[in-house]
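Notes from hallway chat w/ T.B., transcribed later so I don't forget. T.B. wanted the structure written out for a chain they're using in a teaching module, and asked if we could keep both sequence and structure tokens in one place. Agreed to drop them here.
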Amino acid sequence: MKLLRSVSLPTSSTALKRVNVLFEDKIIKLSTDEIEVEEDVEIIEAKGLLMLPGAIDPHTHILTQDSENASDLSRFTKIALEGGYTTLAELSYHTLNPIFDNRSLKKKMAFINANSFTSMALWGHIDMGDYPYHSESAQEIWSKGVVGISLAVPSPNPAIADISFTEIMDLFLDIYESDTSFAFQGYDNENHQAFSSTAQLEAIKKILRRMQENPIHIPRVSSYPTIEFINSVSKRSDISFAISLVDMMALYNPDIFETPFNCDFTDYADLLFELLRTNKIYLLSNCAAPQETNPEYCELFQGSDPKMMSYSYLWVLSELWKKRRIPLATCIKMTSENAAKRLGIYPEKGSLDPGSDADFVLYDPETTTLITGNKGKTTELIGGFKAVYLKGNQVAGENCTTQKQGSFFARSTNPKRRHNKTTWI
């Protein structure tokens, strides 16, 4: 058992609250008063430090055709952990071993348990080649704790058969009563020969016309008009989206960062900032994926350099909170809380309330951290992580050799809005 003494905790307002925190693998008690403890409790003096939830990435893409081995999974999750990410949700676009059924899920779980530094949830896939049993298999892995089923149009992976928009509609009807959550990435390939932001928006509209009440998530949106459309329908459709952190970095620090994606945010910078300020950008993701050289990969199914996970959470705190005065509570929602709710793993993850997993970082706002952006230039971020805790153990940070204590983490709650009174929206 451990006791954090005099640590500052964020609140829903701009104020910070100094508390004492008793925890083991889960948070036991928070109090502004002294907490009486037994002699064998480890005391951690934390005055001047902030206790923040460990960051959660709702979809990484680190397991690919060229990168699906133990050393790669360990390397990328170690980078994430040292950057304050305690939970990742792997959504593999190019994996050689899709998660189609319980057998493939168990294999992936064992792989993660043996090699991951972070807690890791999993998105499953749909096997149209197994028709008419594909929907039963999808419901089976949903019942075993995957955070959702990934749909991609067109399929970027020869191991995953193409699925048409008509087949997606049939799938939604087949599993309507299960409340299964989906991720959709793609474009309208029936009316467009290649990807564009317009083609992506048209595909999203097609999906919304076909969906029932199942939650659906768009893993990456790099176009402001698409964001505006999703926000306009989000109150009547259970839809969410994420912005890639590299797009944000390139927008606000163009000398240090560049985005590999076609992104129009510079044309709408003021409008986008207003969405940030008013808590209408729900999720930020690294969209991390090993840098592929295959020219046939559509941009939608590529990602940013996983090395950026070493500082992207810190960048949000430095650039958005400290410099641009986005409320800290909003930054936490975008990087942790909302992801946990969308994935169905809240409040075990993404929360600092008693009963939640003791996954957190200790942030020092008075120090600085020197990083190198993806354009090869260095910059100084405000603040730094003194320690990263996973299930109550310090696993990274100062005076700590990074520890491999990650494992598979199953979805525990229903992410559907009507079942979730504390929904992210």
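Follow-up for T.B.: The two ends are 35 Å apart (CA to CA). Might be a good example for the class.
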